[in-house]
Amino acid sequence: MSSLPTVSVIIAAFNARRWIGLSVASAQSQTLREIEIIVVDDGSTDDTSEVVAGMAKNDSRIRLIRQANAGVGAARNTGIRFARGRYIAPLDADDVWEPEKLERQLDCMKERGERTALVYCWHKWIDEKGASLGYKSNSTIEGDVRSAIMLRNFIGSASVPLFRASAIERAGPYLTRDEQYGGQGCEDWDLSIRIAEKWEVGLVDDVLVGYRQSNACMSSQVPSMAMSYQVVMDQARARNRDLPETIFRWAEGHFHSYLVSKSYDGCDYRSCINSAARAILSDPMLMLNQRLHELSFKSLVWLLTGKRRSPNRRMLASSAPVVDDNHAVARISLLEKIQARRWASVVGA
Fold first, then answer.
1. Which in 45, 67, 89, 321 has the greatest CB count within 10 A?
2. Whole-model pTM over 0.70
């Protein structure tokens, strides 16, 4: 490339041979052409590197970097160190972008000005074959979002944000696996929190990211994500002592409610029960959540019988309630109303 790229696309890849071609291709297809695509192979044992190297032969914008396995945060940080663009766009190795994703985010960034350091968009869940799972994000909050992003990761996916590179340099890089005591999964949320503590956030209100949902290795990811979350929120509490403690308690309850669904879908029944208990201990109002009761009871039955069901092929949005009768509907509706009021009180709506 004869001139510096505007955006550096950072793809951390570990044994990603199945989808890496689709991910890189979605970056190549961006209407914003002034980009570089940095793929960091984080110690893969499959032929991830060979796939990327083959694509790089026909596109000089693609750069492959290999390193020993150090985790997704460290891999992204490696890519950022080599990045030359004024903006950083992370892309997970199994996710895909719509062609206009970067161009529209960049337009929003320029329109909002230097005070904005992160622009997000909406995403949808897709299955292993790329088909829509029926869930898409719909957050409309922008501007000063510090309290809101502490309560809930409304950005939703590591493949969504466009960052100013200068802001990441000031705020600091992704947390590594070692810095999370072996955990992973919330380092993208952590970086967004740290950016939101100092800058404003913008929004492109359109679905521009396909966030792939896979049951592969899900049971081992849940304890890892729980550890990662604890590290991220312990640090966030220490930096934001002016925020009400209720925000952090509500956030913990919401996050562990999400892990209930994720661990059950992955047949990790012990983690499902533990997550439900942690959710309710953090936020007793979640006793009204029928989904927690149902999945915890089913998990207990599977543990007692020593059997394992087949993992779900179509994962449901974790926020969708599971209801069996009119009484459950009323209880869930009450909880949803309470959570909506909480959200409004935090974001100032």
1. 89
2. yes
